[in-house]
Design brief:
By secondary structure, the chain is an all-beta fold. Helix content is 0%, strand content 58%. Strands 2, 4, 5, 6, 9, 10 and 11 form a seven-stranded mixed beta sheet that branches. Strand 4 and strand 5 form a beta hairpin.
């Protein structure tokens, strides 16, 4: 079993910054892609940023130039969010593509952390 635990969600004013973190633990043989998605009520979950084990990064157009994703060697992924806007308000979910053995892989999600940007 694999657990993803997020932290860092908060209420912040527009134009401010926030950093959310996610730590993966459990039966991890290898972590491939890790990233962040977000969801607002009535809408589908959308990709915010994704980083592969090789360091390739993909951002949603709406956050390019404002958000930065990074990961470390301790199975954690981070999202630095600058110049936050009201439309960034959402529940942010951590995502990880995990190999639990050499040949078994699955997608895992965190429980979500609320980011609220007041205008």
């Amino acid at each position: 079993q694999v657990q993803l635990v997020e932290s860092g969600g908060a209420l912040v004013q527009a134009g401010g910054s926030l950093r959310v973190s996610c730590a993966a633990s459990g039966s991890i043989f290898r972590l491939d892609a890790m990233g962040w998605y977000r969801q607002t009520p009535g809408k589908q979950r959308e990709l915010v940023a994704l980083i592969t084990s090789g360091g390739s990064i993909n951002y949603a157009d709406s956050v390019k130039g404002r958000f930065t994703i990074s990961r470390d060697n301790a199975n954690a992924v981070y999202l630095q969010m600058n110049n936050l806007k009201a439309e960034d308000t959402a529940v942010y979910y951590c995502y990880a593509e995990v190999h639990t053995t050499w040949y078994e892989r699955a997608d895992y999600w965190g429980q979500g952390t609320q980011v609220t940007v007041s205008s």
